[in-house]
Amino acid sequence: MASQVSLVDDIVSEYQGLEMQMADPEVAGDQNQFRKLSKRYAELRPIIQVNDELNQARVDLEDAKEMAYEDHDFQAEADRLEGEVVELEEKLADLLAPRDEHDAEDIIMEIKAGAGGEEAALFAGDLARMYERYADKTGFSWEVLGLNESDLGGVKDMTISFKSKNPSRDGAWSVFKFEGGVHRVQRVPVTESQGRIQTSAAGVLVYPEPDEVESVNIDEKDIRVDVYRSSGKGGQGVNTTDSAVRITHLPTGLIVTCQKERSQIQNKARALQVLQARLDQMEREAREAEDAEQRASQVRTMDRSERIRTYNWPENRITDHRIGYKANNLDSVLDGDMGDLITALQNQERAERLEAEG
Questions:
Q1: Are 176 and 106 in contact (CB under 8 A)?
Q2: DSSP labels for 38-78?
Q3: pLDDT at 80 over 90
Q4: If we measure between CA atoms, which residue out of 205, 199, 203 comes closest to residue 182?
Q5: Percentage of the chain with pLDDT > 70?
Q6: Which residue of 54, 78, 86, 176 sits 20 to 30 Å from the alpha carbon of 287, by its own alpha carbon?
Q7: 243-281: buried (b, 16+ CB within 10 Å) or exposed (e) per residue?
Q8: 207: β partners
Q9: Do the bridges between strand 254-258 and strand 307-312 make them parallel or antiparallel, or are there none, so unpaired?
Q10: By C-alpha distance, which of 124, 126, 130, 129 is closest to 112?
C-alpha cells in the first residue's frame, strides 16, 4: 500500500508539472512539444481522476461513520460509501498495474495474403475491412498508405495506419497489437465450383509508429528509392505521374511502399516513417529474443510466427488459439464488433504482466 501511495504521489507531481508546462505560452507555441506533453497528460489523467474520487469518497465515508454513530439512519449511507471506496481502490490499482509502454501510441499495420492465391487475397481484404470497421466504431482514425489489389478486388498486400483522434492512455497499440500473426480462414472460396471448403491464410504485422517525421533516423546510403505510378485493381494505373514511392532498406532487405499522397516528396517522407517504425520494432524484438527473462515477460501475441486465430465460415466461429477463446459470432466480428475478443486478450495480457511482476 505504501508503495502505491508513493507511486500516486509521483504521478500527481508529474501531472501538476505537465499542467504548468502546457500553460507556458512558449511551450504552447511549439506544436511538437505541446503534442508530446498532451499525450503524457492524457495518459495520467484517468489515474488522477480516480485518485481524486477515491480521496473524496474516503472523506465522505468518515463523515458518514461519525453521523451514523449518533444517528443510525446514516448507517446505510456509510455502507454504500464503504463499497464505493473498495470499488475505487480496485479501479486505481488496475490503472497502476504494469502496462505495455507503447499502449498509448499509434500503429502501422501490414496485411499480406498468404498461401491460397486469390482466396487468400480476398480473406486479407476481409481482415482489412474488419479492422477499419472496428476503428470506425471505437473512435480511431485510419488511412491506407499502400495497397496492392488482386484481380477480384482482394488484397495482396496493404499498409494502414491507425491513430487515436485524441490523446489517450489507450491508443491504437493497446488494441491492435494483438493482431500480429498468422490468421487462418476456412470457407468455400468464391472461385470453388464444387463447394469444397478450403483453408487459406493471411499474415498481419503491427508495430508502433514514430510520433514525428523528425524521429526518422535512417542513413540515405542505406536505402534505395524507386518511384512508380500508383496502381489500383489488377495493376491499373490511378495516377498519371510517378508519385508512388518504394523504399528498400539495403542492410535488412525491408521494403516499404507509399502511394497515398499526390506528391512524391510526401510519399517518401511517409514511407520513411513506416520504415523507421519497422526498424524500431525489429530492434525491440531482437532485444527481447536475446534476453530470455525479458522475453518470458512479454505476452504471447508478440510472437508473429505463430498461427493466432482461425475464422471458420461454415460454423460462423472465430477461435483465438492463444487464449482458447471461441465464439459463434464471426459475422459480427468481421463487421467490426471485436470488443469482446480484444477485452479477453487484454485481460490475459494483464494477468501475465501481473504474474511476471510477482
A1: no
A2: HHHHHHHHHHHHHHHHHHHHHHHHHHHHHHHHH-GGGHHHH
A3: yes
A4: 203
A5: 89
A6: 176
A7: bbbbbbbeeeeeebbbbbbeebeebbebbbbbbbbbbbb
A8: 108
A9: unpaired
A10: 124
50-64, 74-88, 177-191, 225-239: lowest mean pLDDT where? 225-239
pLDDT digits (tens, 9 = 90+) for 121-180: 999 999 999 999 999 999 999 999 989 999 889 999 999 999 998 888 889 999 999 999
Cell numbers 497499440: residue: 173
Catalogue the long-range contacts made by 338-346 (C-beta closer than 8 Å, 24 or more residues apart).
Answer: 338/130, 338/134, 338/175, 339/138, 342/175, 342/178, 344/320, 345/178, 345/301, 345/320, 346/174, 346/175, 346/178
The grid cell for 260 is: 497515398
CB 354, CB 100: distance < 8 Å: no
142 and 132 in contact (C-beta within 8 Å)?
yes
Mean pLDDT for the stretch of residues 102-121: 91
The DSSP letter of residue 159 is E
Please provide the DSSP assignment of 250-306 as one string.
TTTTEEEEE-SSSSHHHHHHHHHHHHHHHHHHHHHHHHHHH-HHHHHTS-GGG-TTS
Q: Provide the pLDDT confidence category of residue 215 given band limits of 50, 70 and 90.
A: low
- What's the grid cell of residue 180? 500480429
The whole-angstrom separation of Cα 301 and Cα 349 is 9
Predicted TM-score (pTM) of the model is 0.76
Longest distance between any two alpha carbons in the chain, whole Å:
84
CA dist., res. 215 & res. 284, Å (int): 16
> Residue 71: its pLDDT value, please?
82
C-alpha cell, 42: 492524457
pLDDT value at residue 212: 55
- Where does 188-262 show beta strands of DSSP type E? 198-208, 223-228, 244-249, 254-258
H/E run at residue 140: strand 140-149
Task: Tally the residues of the chain.
Answer: 358
For residue 298, what are the contacts with CB-CB under 8 A and spacing of at least 6?
A: 288
